[in-house]
Specification:
Layout (H helix, E strand, L loop, with lengths): L1 H38 L21 H15 L12
């Protein structure tokens, strides 16, 4: 019975130790992230100018509108149709 108590005590001490070390690791990681963000903030990306869609007169306007709507829906409004060519 004494061996069982000693084993349970060692298991409890080991689990608490691992838990505390993981907490220390989490807080040190968060502190490192804050420190790095203060020292070297992320650069802002400037969007490039977008040219107007070129149709070349060969694609009907309804088809172009459907393609533009599909691209907009799939990309969540972030995608733009730059050029459409008929092959």
């Amino acid at each position: 019975m004494e061996n069982l108590q000693t084993g349970l005590l060692l298991m409890g001490v080991g689990m608490v130790t691992v838990f505390l070390i993981l907490l220390i690791l989490i807080y040190l990681s968060q502190g490192l992230i804050v420190l790095v963000n203060k020292i070297a903030p992320e650069e802002e990306v400037k969007p490039r100018p977008v040219a107007a869609p070129a149709t070349g007169g060969t694609i009907p306007s309804g088809t172009l509108a459907a393609i533009s709507a599909a691209v907009s829906m799939v990309t969540g409004g972030k995608g733009k149709v730059i050029k459409v060519e008929k092959k």
